[in-house]
Amino acid sequence: MESSTPTPEHSRRLSAARREGERVTPLELFFDLVFVLAITQCTALMADHPTWEGMVQGLLVVGVVWWAWVGYAWLTSVIDPEEGAVRLVIFLAMAALLVAALCIPDAFGSLGLTFALALGVFRVCHIALFMLASPDDDALRHSVLGLAASTAVAVSLLALASAFDGLAQGALWALAIFLDMAGPYFFGSEGWKLVPGHFAERHGLIVIIALGESIVAIGIGAAGILDFTMGLVAVLGIGLAASLWWMYFDVVALISAKRLSEATPGREQNELARDSYSYIHLLLIAGIVLIAFGLKSTIAHAEEHLHDVEAFALYGGAALYLLGLVAFRYRHTHEVNRERLGLAIVLLILIPVATQLAAWLSLAIVVALISIMLTFETRSYGLIRSDLRRENTVIHHEPE
Question: Which residues pair with 358 in a beta bridge?
Fold first, then answer.
């Protein structure tokens, strides 16, 4: 007769033990599909309100949704999301995030309170699962309780913001994001648990998902109409998305994942993960959302010039993405990528020029400048790039 006593592996998955050697699970990818909708809704919010205020509102929502998602990336480095009871809570969290995503286009209007309440349910599920993961780990439980406090404050401020409008409402949103994201500095970083490979891969996949939004924006902007100019813009849009992918995944993602894995477990590794992935990746995601808004406007008005907000979204979004990569590299190596920093500055300087050109030409300039930089970088990496990618291929294909 077989024993019903849980195996050590089963117990480990419901404790604070690490997920050594585990890859991102299918349920995590399924979970992230709801995040795709939230990102799409942020772009829609900007497109429906193509003003400076609308763009700021969209970025504020990106910040709130991003930090809510980040918590689950840390969570699934502790427990297996596909365990029976855990799986059900994950599904409940997905439903809550879906409701919050549906509220985003009017999150600063009549659906503000509903958005805050749905997000609150999403965050409560996260805290509950973390409490389940830390029955015998006092350090982790202390960190989770601190996170619960900052979560309660942030959600309460978002609910309060629904009673205001204009500058006061935006200020409450900004305060909620700041206090929520600053929380880890108050309750320390030693208690968290982390599986480096899983954590880096999870964030890489979310970058791909966000890039998918820029492709979706092209299709939505075209609205079923195709002529030569639209076809050209579509090709340029894919070229821009491919360039963003190349900048992150060709070398940067590999080196960063390796450095995170080599960091000393505990405070050093946790703070490196927190800074470079939880914080700095927000710049990448926000940049992609802005670019998606810019692409949507470009393909809808390909032969007209971009207005100031739309030009800033396209050029400023690309610059923000580049600056995020510069910060990402600096956090890991303490070196500044001068080429990417310089290109970010050039793109910001060119924003006024973009407002005077046809939208398709403005997009072509962005793609051309980034492509030139990538060509220079790829040649300068030389054998180091080939060796690094070969090493990564071997690691991912060797039998366990």
Answer: 305
